[in-house]
């Protein structure tokens, strides 16, 4: 079996517990997945660190929208990085771009240094850049440990060929984490097509309710994350 690292993208404590029980190696913790992920609350970070038993990598993203940040937003990101470091996070996840959508190498390098010794993932802001080939070299130059990408496409399935090229280009200098649209039905083929060893996904399943059910729906989470699904995904990745 190939060596695989699977990271669950989680926004609830229940998902963090499922990650542990399902055999995930790490957790990316965020809020507002509907916005692509934002910085989670103090309480959620603390609970995830205390109860998941897994390395927690915290999203540092102060707002939705693009990845060009002003000085006040950068200051907020710095405070959040220092705060989650104190809470025991193993890593942080962020991405800074310039006006031309290229990687903000200098700004990212400063945040990487601030985060040390936590690990740093440059998130899918990478996929917004005009040249993924150049952007990969730029991210490597920042000292980041990992880049999360769908190959610049709407999902990793469509971007599989590009992802394979990025894995070859990286050549062990940085981890390429395949993310975006991972499902049980496609993880094995993605592992084969990309040659990647790092994968990222939420594996959420929408909770379906009986059409005529009288149970209230406005105070129940619309999604669940199942440990068995995580376990199956990892097994498929390892056996690919």
Q: Which features characterize this protein?
A:
240 residues, alpha/beta, TIM Barrel, 8-stranded parallel barrel, two-stranded antiparallel sheet, 38% helix, 16% strand, globular
Q: Can you walk me through this structure?
A:
This protein has helices at residues 13-22, 42-51, 71-86, 105-115, 132-142, 160-170, 187-194, 227-239, and strands spanning 5-10, 26-29, 56-59, 91-94, 119-122, 146-149, 175-179, 198-201, 205-206, 223-224. With 240 residues, it is α/β, with parallel strands linked by helices. The protein has a single domain (5-205, 218-239), classed as Copper homeostasis (CutC) domain (TIM Barrel). The chain has an eight-stranded parallel barrel, surrounded by five helices. The protein has a two-stranded antiparallel ribbon with strand order 9-10. α1 (13-22) links the parallel β1 and β2. α1 (13-22) packs across α8, α4 (105-115) runs parallel beside α5 and α7 packs parallel to α8 (227-239). The chain is globular. The relative contact order is 0.15.
Secondary-structure map:
Elements: E1 5-10, H1 13-22, E2 26-29, H2 42-51, E3 56-59, H3 71-86, E4 91-94, H4 105-115, E5 119-122, H5 132-142, E6 146-149, H6 160-170, E7 175-179, H7 187-194, E8 198-201, E9 205-206, E10 223-224, H8 227-239
Parallel strand pairs: 1-2, 1-8, 2-3, 3-4, 4-5, 5-6, 6-7, 7-8
Antiparallel strand pairs: 9-10
């Amino acid at each position: 079996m190939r060596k695989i690292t699977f990271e669950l993208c989680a926004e609830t404590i229940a998902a963090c517990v499922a990650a542990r029980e399902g055999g995930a190696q790490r957790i990316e913790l965020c809020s507002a997945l509907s916005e692509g992920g934002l910085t989670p609350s103090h309480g959620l970070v603390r609970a995830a660190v205390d109860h998941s038993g897994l390395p927690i990598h915290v999203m540092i993203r102060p707002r939705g929208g693009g990845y060009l940040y002003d000085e006040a937003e950068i200051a907020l990101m710095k405070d959040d990085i220092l705060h989650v470091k104190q809470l025991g996070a193993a890593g942080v996840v962020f991405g800074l771009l310039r006006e031309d959508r290229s990687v903000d190498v200098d700004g990212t390098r400063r945040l990487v240094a601030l985060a040390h010794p936590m690990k740093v993932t440059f998130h899918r802001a990478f996929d917004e850049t005009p040249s993924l080939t150049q952007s990969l070299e730029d991210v490597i130059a920042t000292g980041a440990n990992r880049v999360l990408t769908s190959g610049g496409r709407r999902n990793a399935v469509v971007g599989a060929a590009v992802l394979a090229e990025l894995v070859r280009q990286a050549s062990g200098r940085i981890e390429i984490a395949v993310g975006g649209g991972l499902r049980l039905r496609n993880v094995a083929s993605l592992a084969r097509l990309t040659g990647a060893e790092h994968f990222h996904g939420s594996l959420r399943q929408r909770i379906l309710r009986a059409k005529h059910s009288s149970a209230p729906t406005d105070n129940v989470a619309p999604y669940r994350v199942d440990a068995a699904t995580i376990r199956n995904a990892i097994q498929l990745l390892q056996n690919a």
